[in-house]
Write a structure and sequence with these properties.
- The chain is an alpha/beta fold and 529 residues long.
- It is 26% helix and 23% strand.
- The chain has a 10-stranded mixed sheet, with helices on one face.
- A hairpin with a 2-residue loop joins strand 3 and strand 4.
- Helix 3 crosses helix 5.
- It is globular and about 70 Å long.
Length: 529
Amino acid sequence: MICPCQSVDRLTQVRIDGYTTSWVFSGYWLQYRCCIYTTVLNERRLKMLLVHFFMPKLAHSSYMLAGNRTCAVIDPSRDVDGYIRAAADHDLKITHVLLTHLHADFVSGHIDLAAMTGASIVMAASACCTFDHIPVSEGDSFLVEDMKIDVIETPGHTPEHVSYIVTDTGRGSDPAGVFCGDTLFVGDVGRPDLFPDMADILASRLYDSLRKLMKLPDFCEVYPAHGAGSLCGRAMGSKWRSTIGYERKYNAALQIEERDSFIQSLTTSMPPAPDHFSRCSAVNRAGPATVSSLGEPEPLKPEEFRKATRGLDSIVLDVRRYDAFGGQHIPGAVSIDLEGNIPVFAGWVLPPDMDIYLVATNLHEVLETTLWLRRVGLDRVKGYLDGGMFAWSLEGLPAAHLPQLSVLEADLLIRSCEKNLILDVRSSDEYDNSHIEGAVNIPAPDLRTRFRELDPDSDILLLCSTGYRSTLAGSILLSNRFKKLRNVSGGMKGFNSAALAPACLMCSIPHGPRLLTGKAHDHITPGPG
């Protein structure tokens, strides 16, 4: 690999597990899969260093801004080991934790980082946070070694939002970059509708905040807190950074010049907001419990597990592959496949005031699931089924089933004279983009209440893009006494692969969002005989 800096003497490779990362050195960056490349120039360390951490599923970007000895972490995720490991590997002390706003889609790691490192938390004064922090507002500034951090207020996505403008004074007086949180994304802007009663007001404030950011130089880099796949915006790009000049020229939202038109665009046809979006902001304002205080889930033998999950204050979450859930599962369990977007859908459908008990394939899946749940504020993971469904079966305990159909079998049923309700549980945007003729659309999370619109005695074929969400939908319907359910394994992707339907636009985007898409208005009919 060739470094763009011609003076680099050697290239050192370091790995940090758990994150996709890139190191940026005074404007030069190198990225290769999940590796970090550190450049050393004439045996001197370059002063300004930027580390990018990306959290898949949540599509969350966080950053470490470092000098020679100290560093700041911006918008950290709840599990903070990656930041501490990165700082230790380069002999850095974490002195500041910067929050751009009270995140709605995940629980932040500011309390854990401050407790473990002694770092000062910097947060907007208008957020009225109840934990120890340095409150900042428009015009405030502070230093991290030679890097000057200027605070500007950029409300819109949330009322208290601020952005941090970074100037590397060791090189010059112009801003090098801006940590803009969820105000400005690559190719998009933050959604202002998370506070429904304030949507128009916040959209108007966002209009002003974006124009404030546009006063920065064209070469100033943009470091947003989310990328493609996040529901904090509508059409984010897959790159993790951009420049003010590029966004000014090509960001569609910034091309809307009239305030009223901008407000109308940003308050209509937005993707649905999961339930935990209304909870995480309050958790972050109060300061979440430290992860170390939560403990680990307890292994429970089948009979112990059955007794523990009898109460009305408990719920069983099955995270095995959806076909395994279909084969057999504990009656009443909710299925959210660990391979799918478990944090979003768990935050969406699991009640936060209930104890959670896990069914998984192995201990690794238990621990991984527990971590994902904590990232969205679901801290009450109490135990897991020791030995899994195999142990459950050996004890002769009851099991339920969700039959699986291949897309070929489903196509035959659809074209037959049998009366089968095709229930498409994808988002409305996905459905509008392409669907099977005659299918009824109810997004999977909505079935928690909208199951009443369906006849529990009807034969229902469950369909999504792959099989993950349709199995979640099936588990919700089974718990509400629907019996005649069959899941279409492979979903719309399978129909396309079998040449039974044209491609769904969203399904064909490998790194894009999985809950929204543009509308191509393809209309799908069953395959020919």
